[in-house]
Predict the structure.
Amino acid sequence: MITKELVNKSIDYIIRHLDEEISIEDVADYCHLSKYHFSRVFKAETGESIYAFIKRLKMEQSALRLKLEKDKSITDIGVDFGYSSSNYSSAFKKHYNISPGEFRKAMNITDVPDPFCSEKIAWFQSFEEYAQQITIMELDDFVVIHERHIGNYIELGKNWCKFKEKYKDYFKEDTLLIERFYDDPSITSVEQCLYDICMTVDNNCSLDNVITIKGGKFAVYRFDGLVQDIFAVFQGVFNIWLADSGYEMDKRYGLDIYRDIDTQNKHVVVDLCIPIK
């Protein structure tokens, strides 16, 4: 199996079992490799040890839960990711230089620093303003060609250009460009964000990197504006609308479905789709 495909397979396994005790041996066995060979392959491909990767994802997903599930106790969130109360607080503080309680209080309801521009602040609208622009929809499954990236979202445009050129022969009139995102860049380092770029194809496409993205119930926000303003809207929908909507984000991951792209003017029309239950 090609190294990149092997690592992607292992990452998918880790994501599915993140709320369980995961050992390096578990992941290596899933990939049918020895622990030592797998560890070398994973580090060479991602620049991060498998142990550090699992630990980081657990911490970042717990931070996302602290941000979104305001009524759930810090202790219970820590336990969900395998930590005792005292261990979770110390591990969280070591990772973020702030305690879980302080982190939760710091989730400002009016603005957040933009990690892609240190001098910029992302300001939020009110809950009612976001709610007026959100539609609850049932989306069908998507059969897609996909490529996974770990890195700064600033490279997203460049990666999309390469992707579209590589698979230009598969474009049709009804082809959709879809980004599947796993991380919140206000929580995860911008250099370590995990995302898939995808395009829809026919069910009979024979490429090796064809997968099915599960549909289901989503809260859909239609963004129509400049690329540089997407972060503020993304944060507002999560911090303001989702946190107080009565819905919860489930274990599927979010999608950005591009409806129109004006590359020259850096203007896009994109549906921000949050999986909910």
About this structure: Residues 153 and 183 are 11 Å apart (CA to CA). The chain has a mean pLDDT of 91. The chain has two domains: 3-106, 132-275. The domain at 3-106 is CATH 1.10.10.60 (Arc Repressor Mutant, subunit A).
